[in-house]
Each structure stands twice: as C-alpha cells, then as structure tokens.
Design goal:
GO terms for molecular function: ATP binding. With 221 residues, this protein is an alpha/beta fold. It has two domains: 1-84 and 160-221, 3-Layer(aba) Sandwich (Rossmann fold), CATH 3.40.50; 97-159, no CATH class. It is built from six helices and ten strands; from the N terminus they run βββαβββαααβαβαββ. It has a six-stranded mixed sheet, with helices on both faces. It has a four-stranded antiparallel sheet with strand order 2-1-4-5, with helices on one face. α2 (100-110) packs parallel to α4 (144-156). The longest helix is centred in the C-terminal third of the chain and has 18 residues, at 174-191.
Length: 221
Amino acid sequence: MNSAPRTGLEVRGLRVVYPGQPPVEAVRGVDLTISTGEVVALLGPSGCGKSSLLSAVVGVIEPAGGSVAWDGEDLTRMPVHRRGFGLVFQDGQLFPHLSVGANIAFGLEMAGMGRAARTARVADLLDMVGLAGLGDRGVTELSGGQRQRVALARSLAPRPRLLALDEPLSSLDANLRARLAVEVRDILHAEGTTGLVVTHDPAEAQVMAHRVLRMSDGHLL
C-alpha cells in the first residue's frame, strides 16, 4: 500500500484583512510552499505583512481568503490546537510560575503523555538547547537567551510538523542573537522540523533558513 505523498505546507491565495475604515489588507493573495524538513525565512520591515502571514498559517488569525494545507489536507478552518504546528514568540511567553522543566513538559502533559516519557523527552530537549541540569530552576531566574531556549524546547516538545518563529531573537543583544540563530538552525535540523521564521534581520534569515523570501506591502517578492 502506497503512502500519501508528503508535500509539507501549501498556502494558496492567502489574504489577511483587518477591519477598519477603510479595512487594511495586510496579506494580499500570497502563495507559499515549504517542503517537509525545510526552513524558510520571511524577511521584511515592520508592517510588511510577514507576521500576519505567519499567524494565518498557524491559525491564530482567520484569513479573509485563500487556503492553508499540510500534506494535501485543508487546514484553513481548523482550530490552532489541531494543526500540529508550534509557535515561538519574540518574548517566549513562558509560564512564570512553572519551572523550566514544567514549562517544557506542559504541552506533553496536556496531550496525555505518561510521566516517564515526559521526563525523558524534557531531559533530551534540555540537553539539546544547552540547559541540561536546569529543569528545576524557575524561569524568572534565567537570562533572556536562556528563556528563549526554554520557549524553543517547549514548542519542540510535542514534535510539531511545522514550527513558526515570530521574530524569536529580536529582543536579544546582537552577539547573543547571532549565536542563537546558529543554535536554533542546528536544533531544527537535528529534529527534522519544518520551519517558518519571521525576521527583519537579513543576516539572521540567511543563517537560519534554507530559503529566504522577501515580503513587502503584503506580497512575497
């Protein structure tokens, strides 16, 4: 029996419109394909529509038109939690009352994974992001770079088929940002995770992605 072809992400004619007088069309009929295991960066200035496009792909924003599919399955109206996608924000959005390990394990616990399997997965991810031995530490005790590593590990924990990263390093200083860009790239490659990265930094885009697409005024160039 032949398995269905794995085509990855397919976006067709995607539009994002924000209400107002007049309405603002942030994404204007974008087509985008990302192969399984590929990392693509969307590069452009603030207000060009790149974060709106990423949000519509993940399902945080409902598009005004067009479609989002994965391996041929239409996800356009599917809720966020059923898409199998992960999302890393600029500020990490960690749970401040939970430890590092509990933050990483949160999605696994919600999915019903057993304690032993959760513990093993968290340990593997802590080692992968360079935070081995810090699972019991409070996230408020960490540096900015360490917190972003925890956010990355938490998003990777359920093994998402696509990881979307919205300006994940922009709040960090230049030296740390450059170093983490390499580390994030290597982690995505090691996990075999398909990635969509939004950034305004050309050097960061080149380091993190297999392919860089420029965006302007709601269009991919």
